[in-house]
Amino acid sequence: MIKGTTSANLKGKRVVLQLKKGKKWVSTGYSAKVTSTKTYTLKFKPRGIGSQTYRVKYLGNANLKPSLAKKSITLWKWIGLAPREVSGDLYKDDVNMAGRYFSNAIVDYMSYYSDNGSYSDYNLSYKCVKIKARVGLDDGSDSGLKVRFKVALDGNTVYTSNSIGVGSSASFTKNTTGVFRVRLTMTSMDDSYRGYAAFAAPQILCKGYPAT
Q1: Which residues, at least 6 apart from 21, have a Cβ–Cβ distance to it below 8 Å?
Q2: Rounded Cα distance, 175 and 128, in Å
Q3: Domain count, the chain
Q4: Which domain holds residue 196?
Q5: What dihedral angle (degrees, nearest 10) is formed by the CA atoms of 170, 175, 179, 182?
Q6: Strand partners, 16
Q7: Residues 6+ apart with CB under 8 A from 176
Q8: Dist CA 72 CA 25 (whole Å)
Q9: What is the tens place of the pLDDT at every residue in 92-103?
């Protein structure tokens, strides 16, 4: 939403919202009428990600010249973390966790080697301010399997879960401002049991798409 004030001679006139694309200004299809108190309110739904520049313009008529005001905004968007992987053991798959189905998860199979921890690294490229996910086991895992999950930002651990078993899950949200890379780790507490562990619906809030 963009609010503003105009000169008195624009009362009752209609202003339009335009978006800068390259060197051109294009119509967004949104407009508003200037009120008797010389104010306007443009309600619109911006799309995309990153920095965008808008202008509010009165197109003019035979008696009044065109006039305009510019405003720049930054659009933040939740995007999937899985495509940002640069190295590691984890991979994208779907899971059923604590009775809920997740079509987008980062998973690994917990087996005899998993007590050493499975991990993957993902780039944020200093463009993201939050990370969130739900952690737990696939409902088809062995009943005795318990897994601990960790999140590290540029080498600093910021989240460590309790040991999570089948039928349970936990969620986290962490600040990632000024972070280049995140590491997700899952470690089996007993390699006698088998099953899939997952970071379900992992997302990052970004102002641009990180490098892959």
Answers
A1: none
A2: 9
A3: 2
A4: 78-206
A5: 0
A6: 31, 57
A7: 124, 128, 129, 130, 131, 153, 182, 204
A8: 13
A9: 999 999 999 999
